[in-house]
Amino acid sequence: MTDVGEVQGAAPPAPTTAGGTGRVDSARVGPLRVGIVGGGFMGRVHTNAARAAGAQVVAVASSSADSAARAAEALGIGTAHASVAELIADPGIDVVHVCTPNVTHAALAGAALAAGKHVVCEKPLATSSAEALALVEAASRAGLVAAVPFVYRFHPMVREARARIAEGSIGRVLSVRGSYLQDWLLDAGDIDWRVDSSAGGPSRAFADIGSHLVDLLEFVLGDTLARVSSVTSTVHESRGGSVVDTEDEAAVVFETRGGAIGTLFVSQVAPGRKNRLVLDVAGTAESVEFSQEEPETIWIGRRHGSEVVARDTEALRPDAARLSIVPAGHPLGYVDAFTAFVRDVYAAIDGSAPEGLPTFADGLRAVRVTEAVLASAHDRAWHSVA
Ligand SMILES: NC(=O)c1ccc[n+]([C@@H]2O[C@H](COP(=O)([O-])OP(=O)(O)OC[C@H]3O[C@@H](n4cnc5c(N)ncnc54)[C@H](O)[C@@H]3O)[C@@H](O)[C@H]2O)c1
């Protein structure tokens, strides 16, 4: 199926130095030196964000020496390593960004940590909670920064919604509706490595975009999902001549530990929807809604006098104002949010503690929810989230 041929086996490269090479400390002089693993869509996004955040992107590795060379040329990166093992062993790299298909994440991120590198690893952090937990423990033992790009946290208006909920202005949270809709896998002829569980993992739509939704929900609410009941649907039995073993859609009913109830709906077969991530929270006094496709506003619902609140740095809560880096009227979007995420990762590497940095622990949370959603869809029973 598709370009699964591009997904090379991700046997963990043997680290050359345990906990040593490339370790950054406060004595570092000059910009952080970044190595990118994976030369596809996210390899480009990470490269651009790393540069915008002031780092030097020094090397890239991908599924083969040839594909690394192509990526190096396309992205203007000086060194194309012949293998990921070679990049991870490179003493001239401080932080490794893992931008490869899902099943490779655990081995590659684990090897980078073992070699003493800080790591940014794409979501889903791993394709099982056991692997994700091992990564959380490895990062903690090594004392390295280990972050997952849950990038929607970095829209200023998400921080504004979060601050309003934390300060209680919407009242007690009663209910939440979250959805993330796309259409790029609508037709039976639409194929991608994510469709095949051997490259994408046992969950497709939920792990791919539901993980963003879960993270955003828990981040904005300051609450966690306790129990889920779900159904999934696979619309096309086969794609590109191969049997499909991952879901196109997932519908979830949930309860939070804080006592709210809600629903999540995730689909990659919703015509006309591109990246329609919407989070709609109802409290006892107000509602608040954020939509990723219109990230410069939030809607505040009231029984009387609902309003659309636009980003206005002077009027934002401090954490939202911090991320509001251009004057209102110059729209901020996904690319800016990604740069803000990477800037905060690098600030953490340099010893700061930026508010709301998504770490491997948050990556683990999303994997655990994904497992509970799949388990519930399988046996049609409620499942607790570990
Ligand atoms: N945070 C976000 O907003 C966001 C958005 C899109 C994708 N993602 C995640 O980013 C990851 C990559 O997605 P993408 O859209 O860039 O995919 P892609 O197919 O465009 O690129 C994947 C790249 O990895 C390379 N590759 C495959 N196997 C490899 C291996 N074993 N070692 C080294 N390189 C290997 C491929 O050659 C390709 O260059 C996925 O895990 C996806 O879930 C995150």
Distance between the termini: 34 Å
CATH superfamily of the largest domain: Dihydrodipicolinate Reductase, domain 2
Report the order of strands and helices. EHEHEHEHEHEHEHHEEEEEEEEEHHHE
Q: Could you give the count of β-strands?
A: 17
Q: Helix/strand/pairing class, anyone? A: alpha/beta
From the 3D coordinates, which CATH architecture of the largest domain would you assign? 2-Layer Sandwich
Mean pLDDT: 94
Beta-strand percentage? Answer: 15-25%
The hetero compounds bound to this protein are: nicotinamide-adenine-dinucleotide
Would you mind describing this structure in some detail?
- The protein is an alpha/beta fold and 386 residues long.
- It has 2 domains: 4-122, NAD(P)-binding Rossmann-like Domain (Rossmann fold, 3-Layer(aba) Sandwich), CATH 3.40.50; 155-326 and 359-384, Dihydrodipicolinate Reductase, domain 2 (2-Layer Sandwich), CATH 3.30.360.
- 33% of the residues lie in helices and 22% in strands.
- It is built from 11 helices and 17 strands.
- It has helices spanning 41-52, 65-75, 84-89, 105-114, 129-142, 156-167, 197-200, 205-221, 318-323, 334-349, 360-379, and strands at residues 33-37, 56-61, 79-80, 95-98, 118-121, 146-147, 173-181, 225-233, 238-239, 242-243, 249-256, 261-267, 276-283, 287-291, 297-301, 307-310, 383-384.
- The strands form 3 sheets. A 9-stranded mixed sheet has the order 16-15-14-13-7-12-11-8-17.
- It starts with 32 loop residues before the first strand and ends with a strand.
- Mean pLDDT is 94; it is low at 1-26.
- Nicotinamide-adenine-dinucleotide binds next to α1.
